[in-house]
Amino acid sequence: MVQVTAAIIHDGGRLLLCQRPEGKRCGLLWEFPGGKIEPGEAPEQCLARECREELGIDVEPERLVCEVAYTYPDITVNIRFYLCAIAGGEPVRIEHNDIGWFTPDEALLLPLCPADKKMLEGASDDIKGFLRESIFRMRSDR
């Protein structure tokens, strides 16, 4: 089983999703950015590396939302999904076909990679609650 991390990057009640490149596994489906954990790498280090490589941003992992195991035809993955804030930079499309900001409800309407869909369907209420708290904290800090 391949160990993977994925960043649920949030800002102002929206989530950043990325559309996979055509020709790759799950081509043109939407996903949360991330990738395989390298040997000797902590999950949080993997998140930081992948977000720099794929989006040109620094992220701050805030908490683990859940883990999802999923078997694709050619690989079985265990994905750790972390809520993350952008700590530096603006997201740019480096490796993906497209990127965009979506509410959790809008994200559920996208054609998602199966593992991402499984996570979002199971953790959507938890993520929405976190986003509400995050927006409230943002407004309180002003």
The coarse silhouette is globular
Taking the sheet with the most strands, its summary is: 7 strands, mixed
Helix proportion = 25-40%
Mean pLDDT: 91
What is the strand tally? 7
Q: Tell me the fraction of residues in β-strands, as a range.
A: 35-45%
Specify the number of helices: 3
Residue stretches low in confidence (pLDDT < 50, at least 5 long) are: none
- Give the CA-CA distance, first to last residue: 45 Å
Gyration radius over CA: 14 Å
Order of SSEs: EEEEHEEEHH
Structural class: alpha+beta
Walk me through the structure.
There is one protein chain. The protein is α+β, with helices and mostly antiparallel strands and 142 residues long. Helix content is 33%, strand content 37%. Strands 1, 2, 3, 4, 5, 6 and 7 form a seven-stranded mixed β-sheet that branches. The longest helix has 28 residues, at 114-141.
Secondary structure elements and pairings:
Blueprint: E1 2-11, E2 14-19, E3 30-31, E4 34-36, H1 43-55, E5 58-71, E6 76-88, E7 98-102, H2 104-109, H3 114-141
Parallel strand pairs: 1-6
Antiparallel strand pairs: 1-2, 1-4, 2-3, 2-7, 5-6
